[in-house]
Amino acid sequence: MPQVHPRVSCLQGVSDSTAPHDRFREMHTPPPSFSPATFTVWKRSLIFNANGFTVFNSSGNLVFRVDNYSAKHELFLMDAVGKILLSIRHKRFSFNDRWEAFRGDYCGCDIKPAFSVAKTVSILFSSKPSAKVVLNPTKKKNTKLCDYQIEGSFCKPRSLFTVFGTSRQIIAQATRKQATPGIMLGDDVLNLVVQPGVDQTFIMGLLIIFCQINNR
Predict the structure, then answer these.
(1) Per-residue DSSP letters for 140-165?
(2) Strand ranges (DSSP E) for 104-200?
(3) What are the pLDDT digits (tens) for 157-214?
(4) I need a labelling partner for 163 at 20 to 30 A (CA). Which of 81, 132, 192, 209 fits?
């Protein structure tokens, strides 16, 4: 039976070279020598009988995790050792299914969200669910303008998640993972590619939120 990843170093910390950044900014054009970062995203928790997310880098080391998936309106993205990188909260009764993400452990203090994600509402039928991303939403008067756009669907048999920049350039994309050519893993295992210069924590936050929006 194919494994989710050939190496699973569950207790290994995140090295300096793979540690996610805590910046949320527009992508700048990186030097051509830089390569995209590849991750295996397993939409399950390593904790027994718990839903969540477990994310490995290309070396097989655990780099991200979500273990509190049972809380439908509040999620925490953590690193390998359990440090909270993002606190993600659902805005209840929001018209467009809006979610907000805060840096670190949000404890109800007067902390402004780093970004928000809301489902795109369209009067025209579309087979591609989409969402808009706004950075620093409390500082902007017009939140109808977005900094990033998400398109995709997690419906069987194909899973697709794509993040576009303001110029419609692809900055990150996840597809269903193949164990070997022609052999697909389960639909809960994704191959995520993040372009150079893009905040990996930010992308993981977007992926988690988009999964919530699609599953509601």
Answers:
(1) -S-TTS-SEEEEEE--SS--EEEEE-
(2) 115-119, 130-135, 148-153, 160-164, 170-176, 178-180, 183-184, 189-194
(3) 567 899 999 899 999 999 988 777 766 677 789 999 999 999 999 999 999 999 988 8
(4) 81
Which residues have C-beta within 8 Å of that of residue 198, sequence separation ≥ 6? 27, 171, 172
Asked whether the beta carbons of 124 and 154 are under 8 A apart, the reply is no
C-alpha span between 75 and 103 (Å, rounded): 12
Q: If you ran DSSP here, which 8-state letter would residue 167 be given?
A: T
**C-alpha to C-alpha distances, 39 to 17, 106, 111, nearest whole angstrom:** 14, 26, 30
Compute φ and ψ for 193, nearest 5 degrees: -120, 125
Give residue 100's pLDDT band: very low, low, confident or very high (50, 70, 90): very high
Measure Cα distances from 109 to 7, 117, 140, 198 in Å.
39, 21, 20, 28
The reply to whether the predicted model has a pTM over 0.70 is yes
Only one residue has tokens 């805005």, namely 91
Tokens matching residue 168: 């419609």
